[in-house]
Write a structure and sequence with these properties.
Largest sheet: 8 strands, mixed
Number of domains: 1
CATH superfamily: NAD(P)-binding Rossmann-like Domain
Strand content: 15-25%
Number of helices: 9
Radius of gyration: 18 Å
Order of helices and strands: EHEHEHEHEHHEHHEEH
CATH class: Alpha Beta
Shape: globular
CATH topology: Rossmann fold
Helix content: 40-55%
Strand order of the largest sheet: 3-2-1-4-5-6-7-8
Length: 303
């Protein structure tokens, strides 16, 4: 049974909706809201308690871009968690390509490096016992219908993955959507490598799909924010994307559907919404164990 769950990026959007849906499961006793901003966390906790009528929510202050914050958060946990949902992410802000003190870009830090360290620290402390869910994206295998290109890595070598970490692979691009798909591809490979290294834990990459009602575009320039959010609304009317409740429901399925297998990346069979499937059937590189290990080793260079 899954009784205790930690969700990163839990004060809004997909994270908060996931916490709400989890509270409906009677076996869930504690839901840790991993948030960077305490005031926003307190507001989310209060709202969730009011909506659900339950007092199962706890706040864990954590900034997935700050390694000291991550380690402190793990130490703050007074008991182990059964499940981790690595939901925090996004486009990395206006300076998404800035190299931080750990030697990686801001967009890489928020989407992958911080969660890698968090998972590693939880396992080292014996505080993660059953399942880890990583927020994937269909961008990792490309979506032709939406003009999204498949990540173009000539060899998927360790050196190429390290170049994704520090941004050098992308040159002078000023578009955060360029590195995003490659980072999510790398994240899925990392999760598959972790599944083989830790067979006692279930590791699932689950894309929430294209979801309205999130804060994923909020760090983009104002004009691009309005453009992307407007486009998402039109796509919702056309049935090409779905609401936040559906996206969060995918995380919940990842936790409780026993038919889903460890080490697999699940996302939309087609486009950005609808039924999910094993993405390696659409992009075979995802099941390549050598690529998985290369991605894992590249990440380790920065931890």
């Amino acid at each position: 049974m899954i009784k205790r769950v930690l969700i990163t990026g839990a004060n809004a959007g997909l994270g908060k909706e996931t916490a709400k849906q989890l509270a409906a499961h009677p076996e869930v006793e504690e839901i840790y809201l991993g948030c960077r901003n305490i005031d926003k966390a307190l507001a989310a906790k209060s709202e969730l308690e009011r909506i659900t009528g339950k007092s199962v929510f706890r706040i864990i202050q954590i900034d997935v871009c700050d390694h000291s914050s991550i380690r402190a958060a793990v130490q703050t946990l007074d008991r182990s968690i059964d499940a981790l949902i690595m939901n925090a992410g996004g486009t990395g802000g206006k300076s998404f390509d800035r190299i931080n003190s750990d030697g990686v870009t801001e967009i890489f830090a928020v989407n992958l490096l911080g969660h890698s360290l968090l998972t590693q620290e939880l396992l080292k402390a014996g505080k993660l016992t059953k399942i880890a869910i990583y927020a994937g994206s269909e961008a990792a295998r490309g979506v032709k219908e939406m003009g999204m290109k498949r990540p173009d890595l000539p060899t998927s070598s360790e050196a190429e993955f390290a170049a994704i970490c520090d941004g050098s692979f992308f040159g002078k691009s000023q578009d955060a959507t360029v590195p995003y798909g490659s980072i999510k591809y790398m994240g899925a490979l990392w999760m598959s490598a972790m599944a083989r290294q830790h067979p006692q834990i279930k590791f699932i990459t689950m894309s929430p799909g294209a979801t309205t009602g999130t804060e994923g575009f909020n760090t983009l320039p104002i004009f691009k924010q309005y453009m992307m959010k407007g486009m998402m609304q039109v796509m919702l009317w056309l049935g090409k994307v779905h609401k936040v409740e559906v996206g969060a429901g995918r995380y919940i399925e990842g936790l409780f559907n026993k038919e889903l297998k460890s080490g697999i990346f699940y996302a939309s069979k087609k486009g950005l919404t609808g039924a999910i499937s094993d993405q390696s059937t659409l992009f075979s590189d995802l099941s390549n164990e050598a690529y998985q290990d290369n991605a894992y080793r590249a990440i380790q260079r920065f931890l």
